[in-house]
Recover the amino acids of this structure.
């Protein structure tokens, strides 16, 4: 029994330690989380604040689409009713999206009376569409946050449960008593 335990301890000492993530790797994963979280907020905040502003102090009006490009990069409308009647403005985008309309279509919009350029389709103010870029960046941020936590916990577990590598220890060792070693000449005599 004692021989078996001795063999097990020797075998465990010879077993190589698994890869341990370096501090630079952990910092890189954490910075990826910070980047994704920042992009998620950058995609989410402007569209959400526009909807909140229009819900709190917006006015409803009828409008007609007067110009649209095929990308669409803009949708230009003219107000038919309300305090901004006759004003032509570009429709605000929501998360880079515009409503599916054609030139000459009429639509209900919600706008800010003191700033008619902040205008959005009424249906998008009451029920905003899915903000896919923000959702994707939020998922990426969650992935990198979980990856950071798992990597840190695994690193702590490996460093705690495996003996240190003999190559990583100090190779000089303790000083030996006695005469100093002879120096070896590296040239031929």
């Amino acid at each position: 029994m004692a021989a078996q335990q001795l063999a097990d301890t020797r075998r465990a000492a010879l077993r190589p330690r698994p890869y341990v993530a370096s501090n630079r790797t952990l910092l890189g994963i954490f910075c990826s989380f910070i980047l994704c979280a920042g992009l998620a907020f950058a995609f989410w905040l402007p569209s959400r604040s526009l909807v909140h502003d229009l819900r709190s102090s917006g006015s409803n009006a009828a409008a007609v689409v007067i110009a649209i490009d095929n990308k669409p990069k803009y949708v230009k409308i003219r107000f038919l009713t309300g305090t901004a009647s006759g004003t032509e403005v570009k429709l605000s985008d929501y998360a880079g999206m515009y409503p599916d309309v054609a030139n000459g279509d009429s639509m209900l919009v919600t706008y800010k009376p003191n700033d008619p350029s902040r205008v959005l389709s009424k249906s998008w103010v009451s029920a905003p569409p899915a903000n896919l870029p923000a959702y994707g960046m939020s998922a990426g941020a969650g992935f990198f946050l979980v990856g950071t936590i798992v990597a840190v916990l695994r690193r702590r577990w490996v460093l705690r449960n495996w003996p240190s590598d003999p190559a990583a220890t100090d190779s000089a060792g303790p000083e030996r008593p006695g005469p100093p070693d002879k120096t070896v000449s590296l040239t031929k005599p």
Summary: The two ends are 58 Å apart (CA to CA). The mean pLDDT is 84.
